[in-house]
Design goal:
Belongs to the clarin family. One of its GO terms (biological process) is sensory perception of sound. The chain crosses the membrane at residues 9-29, 97-124, 136-159, 188-211. The protein is of the alpha+beta class. It has one domain (4-211): Butyryl-CoA Dehydrogenase, subunit A, domain 3 (Up-down Bundle). It is built from seven helices and five strands; from the N terminus they run αβαβββαααβαα. It has helices spanning 4-29, 41-46, 95-124, 133-160, 164-169, 187-209, 227-231, and strands at 34-40, 58-63, 67-73, 78-84, 178-185. It is elongated, with a radius of gyration of 29 Å. The chain starts with a helix and ends with a helix. 31% of the residues are buried.
Length: 232
């Protein structure tokens, strides 16, 4: 059974692993990964709108992994609409990349739970000889953090390289064409970044748990032997 110091460190790692699991679940369930300002290019060109008039053709768009919403303005006031990624919109996107992002996040929070379980087992007892102690905990945190980083990187690639926001903005738009004026990552995206950072912190804590602090030993008192003790 590990000492009191290691138990404390493992308990802290377990709490962080559970926090990482919750962060990923919240990020996947909330549709606030990206916010963008969109311009109805077709409407602005039809009326030859100048800079002060372009405000009437600017709308907003937000989306996540499974859906989002859009407020479109084409000169006649704003119109709000909601959409879902599955099953129709995903066909207009890079389907394989979008599915891979979701799979990476699922694997990441699964390994976060495994890390939590092994921390608890290491607090109580050593679970398995092959992956016992800090080495096993470090392994699961490396895997969980790596898949979270892969998910975040894949989402950024979809946005920057595959024009994800523009494709979503022009979904089911047969008359008007929308262009992206501004994009900004929202809190759900940063929750996944925080989850990956947590596993990096866990690796540092695992390294701390390997530190062996010197134990203070009391010096035994020397016995005073007298002549009377020898006689008796």
């Amino acid at each position: 059974m590990p000492g009191c110091f290691k138990q404390t460190v493992f308990a802290f790692i377990a709490a962080l692993s559970f926090a990482s699991f919750i962060l990923i679940l919240v990020a996947m369930g909330t549709q606030k990964w990206m916010m963008a300002k969109i311009l109805c290019k077709t409407g602005a060109e039809l009326v030859n709108a100048t800079d002060p008039e372009l405000v009437k053709f600017m709308g907003e768009l937000y989306y996540g992994l499974f859906g989002g919403g859009k407020m479109r303005q084409c000169g006649l006031g704003g119109r709000h609409s909601r959409f879902t990624i599955f099953p129709h919109l995903v066909k207009k996107l890079n389907t394989s990349l979008h599915v891979v992002i979701i799979l990476f996040l699922c694997v990441a929070f699964s390994f976060a739970l495994v890390s939590l379980g092994f921390c608890i087992l290491n607090i109580l007892k050593v679970p398995y000889r092959a992956i016992k102690g800090p080495g096993g905990i470090a392994l699961w945190n490396v895997l969980a953090g790596s898949f979270a980083v892969l998910a975040v990187s894949s989402f950024m690639a979809a946005v920057e390289l595959h024009n994800l926001t523009e494709r979503i903005a022009n979904f089911r738009e047969h008359v008007f064409q929308f262009v992206i004026l501004e994009e900004q990552y929202q809190h759900c995206f940063w929750l996944c970044v925080a989850s990956a950072t947590i596993h990096g912190v866990n690796l540092l804590l695992v390294a701390v748990s390997l530190i062996h602090f010197p134990t203070l030993k009391t010096k035994p008192e020397e016995a005073n032997v007298t002549a009377e003790d020898i006689m008796y």
